## 1
Amino acid sequence: MAAQDTSQAKSGGYERRRSQRILLRVPVRIYGNAGDQPFYNETHTETVSAHGALVNVEKLMPIDTRLILTNLTTDQEMACKVVFQGQTKEGQNQIAVEFLEPSPKFWRVNFPPPGEKPLKRFGS
């Protein structure tokens, strides 16, 4: 199953989100504790937004797991929580993480301004 945000409404083929996602591969480190099990994973993002990212991981983590995400390009860290877990069609584990506080400058990219019409998703 491809990662998707089921908490956001879809209308007319457009996705409604707090901020637009951008396809961007950024090396990241994820670490924390899932229950009483510590985890550490160096990986990369698939998409990023001002509110978080979609990340490939070795093992899935429960929803609401708190973690620290490090942008390995800038060494900046951000507290996050897991808001989605799933697998790609190819079987790769993915999690969507949401920053505990929005941080549009974390990824060092310019996101479209608020209110900008979202991009239409092809094949929807």
Note: The chain is about 0% helix and 45% strand.
## 2
Amino acid sequence: MQKVNQDEIWDLIQFAQEGSYWDYKREWYASDSKGKGDMLHDIICMANNLESRDGYIIIGVDEEQDFDVCGVDKDTNRRNTQNIVDFLRDKKFAGGIRPTVSVESMLLEDCEIDVMVVHSDRNTPYYLTERVLSVHPNNIYTRVQDSNTPINSTADFYHVEMLWKRRFGLDASIKEKFLILLDQYEEWEHHFDDMRATYHSKFPEFRIEVDYEDRSEGWEPQSPFYLDPKMYFTPLRLMYFNTIIFETGIIDVDGFRLYLPYSQERVLDINAFDAPSGMDGSVHYYYYNLSEMPGKLFKLMTSGNLNFSSRGIHDVWLYLVFENDDEHERFRDFSYSNYSQVDITSLKVKYKRPLSQIYDGNPMEIRILQLVIASELYKLWQEDEQELE
């Protein structure tokens, strides 16, 4: 889940009106039946917002006093993420699927406010199958402009239709549908290790084809960390009927014991170490963003376990894994501020053997060193993230 951008919340407050995916509350909902019913109704409306994006219930802003930031520091009804999760847990939602909600706090104008984030997904429409307090069963609530569907009503037919289309991907482009279907990794018939196409069992027009006639041998900085360092690279295409939707490749590693999709690559423009003439000390790293096509292929090929190791577990993150762009950018920001914590001298001793590898007559120490530095930064970042939770 992406963290809330504080600047975005401040901009919304400065806009001085409610909107289609944000709402203001001067204080937290009361703990009585009315307060709990109002909170549940608001959460469902935000979960079904028509913008297909996260909804914000911003608490600690007084709409009636020119959107003054009053804060929630002394609010006795204040709740955190776990409180909201516990509140929703026993509610009878259709299909047993509940909205994902988190609470984030931030300091604005010397006052602490809370933002209840109702996270967007494709499980709409959310609705109850049993009455809960004042919230009616089988009523589909949504939010249009700055107004929620009244608690004793149901949304307009056109808006309900939009929410069902979102659930079934009928509002998505073919590429967006591919992204949705790739997440259903258990629904795919895998044939990555033979000449047949891999296809979705319910929608076989969505296929993944590997061109094994164009396979070539090569090398990547990950090679020395596998018992068999040879790597083989083969073109891969995502097909909708006979149309190519996306082109990438597949890597066979460790003597064809494991196959992975081509990863993404970026650079941390920092002078992390002294490099030979003609090279820089910046850090190149390889990663999978699980919200993008390579990351979804990675999840599919590993049946959801996100495993890139073979014949044993190593302590190097050969490929960094991020849930989304926000996580990736937090890692980059952390790395720029904390790269001095990495003990490169110790890394050179610890990974002396892989660092000594030569490929095609050329020493590969710099590229492999960049990989292990990125891995160490990733470990430090994960520790920092856990401390912030």
Note: The first strand starts at residue 22 and ends at 25.
## 3
Amino acid sequence: MRAEGPIAAGDAERIEAELQDGRIDEILFESPGGDRGEAMRIGHLLRRAGVLTRIPAGATCAGACVEAFLGGAARMIDAGAHVGAGAMPVSDAASTQAPAEREQAAGRWAERQADYYIRLGVSRGLLRLQLDMPAGATCWLTQGAQRRYGVANTAFVPSQMQAAPLTR
């Protein structure tokens, strides 16, 4: 199955319906990001289903896409794929939220994120990276960083040995 495009509300329910028949064992991701909460719901579904997740060569998976991808029981990133971790989401400085409220919201986000990463076997070093990045920034992870942080937990596929993508 391919998961392409921005992640939006309702995507978790659609993916859950696709997983019901038990015929999906791999999901290929290509997305610029989107709704992080929805992405984490997708990640939890994928983990329960024991699905392999993969970012194929030439594809980009950034921000919320990475959160969904991390749910894979096995996570493969092909050589030539682009993986971008998004900075911690913060409210706009011009918002009506008081600084203390913004700080509390950031703390709650970091706590949820740390719990999610621990459950999926991802290094909290990725969380530290996200907390240190300026708002709205994306950090493009090298293959070494993908392995170090546990974003990829299977061997890389050399570009000449890639399997044909699964489509539905």
Note: Strands lie at 2-4, 26-30, 52-55, 60-62, 74-77, 82-86, 138-140.
## 4
Amino acid sequence: MPNQSILFFINEPGAANVIEPLIEKILLVQNTQIKIVVSRFVRKRFEKYFKDIIDDNIFFSSKHLELKQFKLIISGASFPPEKEIRLWKEAKNNNIPSIAILDQWMHYRERFCLPGKKNALHLPSIIGIMDDFGKKEMLDGGFPENILKLSGHPYLESIVSSSINHSQKNNAFTNILFLAEPRHLGKALGYNEHSILEYLIRSIQDVYADQTVRLTCKLHPRHEADVFDCYKNEFKNIDLIINTDGEMKSLILENDIITGMSSVSLIEAALIQKPIISIQIGLNTTDPFLFSRANIHPAARCYNDLTAQFTNITLGKHHLDWKIPAGLSTKFHDFIIQKFLT
């Protein structure tokens, strides 16, 4: 078998979650070379595999991308997607197949359109979509069926297969995690991480009036470290902790209630039976969170919803049962290897 080279581009931690297991499998394929282009948000994660990691800003600074040596291009599907779209376009111009693997059930068109040009889809050769629900939504959104391939979500599948259940009983639920997302940088939803955090703090004060609560705000890699410093030392019964680089799985396990907007880590938490609250007060467009959009678990759309969900959790009335289909990612990885590398 001749030597064959694959280029990976990974721009976000979410994309890393679904692409890293594929890289590990391809590393075992004989006569296959891997080059990897990464952003600063995920560089450290891949240094254990590769010494010659390519910085994305350097790679994309060229007038024409150096792609002719590659047999296959694999990327995530970021939001916004300018770099991925350029990569797919130049791959097509060089007759190189490209694969984009999604990691979230939201903003499908925005991941394949240039900003302000939502009517024009820019597509790779194949799109990996997590499950049938996501595939149906993409078809409803105008994506061609022939390029959609079920890809699973290896990170979430691994949580299910570990059989870990950390549900709490007889718990005061006073350790709360807030998953901050940089909504101020992207699509206008009617809220952002600042407005949601303010509602969260207010509801904690109301529901936990006589208790001290530890509230940990986990920042997204795109956040500046001081983004929430203005809230420190402001509330008597809230011990606010700003976490910039904690490992997500550990943070979820250490806390009693996991809150956020539409982070995939809310789904991760639900899979191990942690109580979750998707806070979307002010939402004025399509709901970005899988569970509320699919009628699995409602988002808190107003302040009364939020306090009611907190109260129900503290009373032990929280239940959510959802499992991602098992084995889809393995089938998808086998498909890629058999189609392109054997």
Note: The radius of gyration is 21 Å.
